[in-house]
Design a protein that fits this description.
433 residues; 33% strand; 2 domains; alpha/beta; Spore Coat Polysaccharide Biosynthesis Protein SpsA, Chain A
């Protein structure tokens, strides 16, 4: 359907553009095994960054775009949890624009899109967005290009420091020729596939022609190649804003640092602050949160609802303190994410770390975050030792972990959910069930 409308509620132009109403497919079916142990009890899409989950950030961005008339969220792992959470978020507004569809088996991104096309009754151009991305103005920019010329496909490309870990875009005159998956020697200025697409109508039929890959999955990138082979142009839109692909735990910290620096000015404090508290910079204290006397907080810091801070603690930016978290006497928190209902009641240091829900850190818990040689911290993921690119990285702790008193945790150590750690130990290896 064609209609005269502004592209976004947040963009007002002198001339309105004739655009199509389109449907958006948001892929949120994966578990996120590389983000373990943080995904033991929740899909990666529900992990919070700077006070808001990855999935809610994406849905909110799509809802801001007037030309999108329906958002189809494809789920699989913990589908009921995601569905219930979305309904809770939007029950008062916009729920009618969101259609949640379950992928029966995790047979690849192409199969997820095919499921959405069939169950969502898509018969025209459509948008696809990967559900583990954090993007700035990229959605607006790619749709603005589409509105000017809807007779082709579009893909978002972005630059990264390590293009060899992604699918890179092989271009000719700004148009896509192919996507080369994880090449060994990619030039530094290479654009990678940034996970946002606008597919032309022909894709509705071509997706049924995709053959299973070597992983026995239906790959969405194969649909791109079929479209190119059919003679339809796919234009590459270059991303010029922040872009994060949340695939590893430390990438949550990277995104949290950037987004908190950018967004904190939007927040207002509604919690209780006792006398003799020092607040420096941008500090958000949510409703029913309390900061007790003697606490010293350097922003940007986000203290969520019901959190209890102090007395006499030190919190440094950029830190997110989740709902009902307790940070007690003589604790220091630096550049960390601490999820809901976790307690560090006294005499602990948490630096450059991610702590799951319902954890308890006994007195004297110390997370080391810097190697003696100051080299990058490496983390074991699926039996491979991965360079995080971070000089400082502390612990990555799953949900429901209980840590005894006087425990030292070396840089980059992971602790699986539900474990109890004995008192007085130094952890130099990952702790697994």
């Amino acid at each position: 359907m064609l209609f005269e409308y502004p592209i976004s509620k947040n963009i007002v132009s002198k001339e309105k553009i004739i655009i199509k109403f389109v449907k958006a497919i948001l892929l949120a079916a994966g578990k996120g095994t590389r983000l373990s142990p943080l995904t033991a009890y929740r899909p990666k899409h529900l992990l919070e960054i700077a006070g808001k989950s990855i999935l809610k950030r994406l849905i909110d961005s799509l809802l801001e775009i007037e030309m999108i008339d329906e958002i189809i969220v494809v789920v699989h792992f913990q589908a009921d949890l995601i569905s219930d959470t979305i309904q809770k978020w939007y029950r008062d507004k916009n729920l009618e624009k969101i259609n949640i569809i379950t992928q029966k088996e995790p047979n690849g991104t192409g199969d997820a899109v095919s499921t959405a096309i069939k169950m969502g009754e898509i018969n025209n151009d459509f948008i696809v967005v990967y559900g583990d991305l954090l993007v700035g103005s990229s959605l607006i920019n790619i749709l603005a290009s589409y509105s000017e010329n809807p007779n082709r496909g579009y893909i978002l490309g972005t630059s990264v420091d390590n293009p060899e870990k992604y699918g890179i875009l092989d271009l000719q005159n700004g148009k896509l020729k192919s996507i080369i998956e994880k090449p060994l020697n990619a030039p530094d200025d290479t654009l990678i596939n940034a996970g946002i697409y606008i597919f032309p109508k022909i894709a509705v039929d071509l997706i049924n022609k995709i053959k299973p890959s070597s992983r026995n999955e239906i790959e969405l990138t194969d649909l791109i190649q079929l479209i190119v082979n059919s003679g339809i142009d796919i234009k590459v839109i270059v991303n010029k804003d922040e872009w994060f692909d949340i695939g590893y735990p430390w990438e949550l910290l990277n995104a949290n640092e950037t987004l908190m620096m950018k967004e904190m000015g939007k927040f207002t404090s509604k919690g209780e602050v006792e006398e003799n508290v020092t607040l420096i910079g941008k500090v958000h204290i949510a409703k029913n949160a309390r900061v007790r006397s003697g606490s010293y907080i350097e922003g940007p810091v986000f203290i969520d609802e019901g959190a209890d801070i102090g007395p006499n603690c030190y919190i440094r930016g950029t830190s997110y303190i989740g709902k009902n978290v307790r940070i007690g006497n003589a604790c220091e928190i630096k550049n960390s994410i601490i999820y809901s209902n976790t307690h560090a009641a006294h005499l602990s240091y948490v630096g450059d770390s991610i702590i799951g829900e319902n954890c308890n850190l006994g007195a004297g818990t110390i997370t080391a975050n810097l190697r003696h040689d100051k080299k990058g911290v490496k983390v074991i993921v699926k039996s491979s030792r991965i360079d995080t690119g971070r000089r400082k990285l502390g612990a990555i702790i799953g949900d429901n972990v209980k840590i005894g008193i006087s425990v030292n945790i070396l840089p980059g150590i992971k602790i699986d959910s539900d474990l109890w750690i004995n008192a007085g130990v130094t952890l130099s290896r990952d702790q697994k069930k």
